[in-house]
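Components:
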Amino acid sequence: MIKVATFNANSLRARLTAVTDWLAANSPDILALQETKVRDADFPEEPFRQAGYHVVFRGEKSYKGVALISRDEPADVSFGFDDGEPPDEARLVRARIGKVHVVNTYVPQGTSVGDSRFLYKLEWFDRLGALFEKEYTPDTPLLWMGDLNVAPERRDVYDPDRLAGSVCFHPEEQQAFKRVIEWGFEDVFRRHCDEKGQFSFWDYRIPQSVKRNLGWRLDHILATEPLAAKSRAAWIDRDERLKPRPSDHTLVVAQFDI
DNA sequence: ATGGCACGCATGGCGTGA
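Structure:
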């Protein structure tokens, strides 16, 4: 069995102890991090090495940043897109880890509907779809995980009527996301849990948002069909979000029998 | 009521996040 997880840390340095404690307590084989908010020269590699993990990362000052933390040494590591447009390396890292290919993305949040950054987000999904098309096949044992910044369905936000048309819960984003999925992914979390009210993000600004469960499901673990068929469990670690000084996201976890 | 809170920064207010 292998265990994989994804986590938007909202600053790795602010969350370093939380992440290393979580690794020690949960022993995942692969952890995908987003929003590390640290330039490569300042990345805290040593605590992960001491914990027995390999780590590859790409970040920039203050914003963005992705990392892959793994028991096995990652092979064929690459960052960003290679499609002639700006590569946006601090949002995409991919590698082969053991028998599995992993793509870890921090999809642009989009700022607000109509903003140029919202259009960039929609294009970003198209670029990602082209990357999957070019680099993999749906038969590849492939994991796509990360902060994808889209709640795909009504059951994935706390108040779908109120939030209808909001950034991260907008039909155009959902369609762009769905187009990528239709290339050959299955939502591994949804394979194991179809309840509403299963969230991975709760806004800091809403009082008692976690206890009131006013959240969004924005962080996802998807897999191609041959790999999804081997998944045995998936869950959201809500308790981590209830600890002191949390990220505004929490971890999504899945296990595979491989 | 479109607020709030957390983070990083050649900080003391601002841009960003979602």
